[in-house]
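Progress report, Aim 2. The chain analyzed during this reporting quarter is listed below.
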Amino acid sequence: MGILYILVPSVAIPLAIALLFFFICVCRNNQKASRPPAPRQPKPVRGQNVEMSMLTAYKPK
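Predicted structure tokens for the chain:
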């Protein structure tokens, strides 16, 4: 009988934590789905973020 005092909490506590995280994730996904999607901005392509005006303004002496 004493082993049940060890086994039951060792199974029940991780199971309760896993269920808590599962419900949090489900609720967050439902909130994201109910909101209208925000307009996406295109990601800058590497190497194209330098403005040409800065390059033409530089005049070596």
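The chain has a mean pLDDT of 79. The first helix runs from residue 4 to 34. These observations will guide the mutagenesis work planned for the next reporting period.
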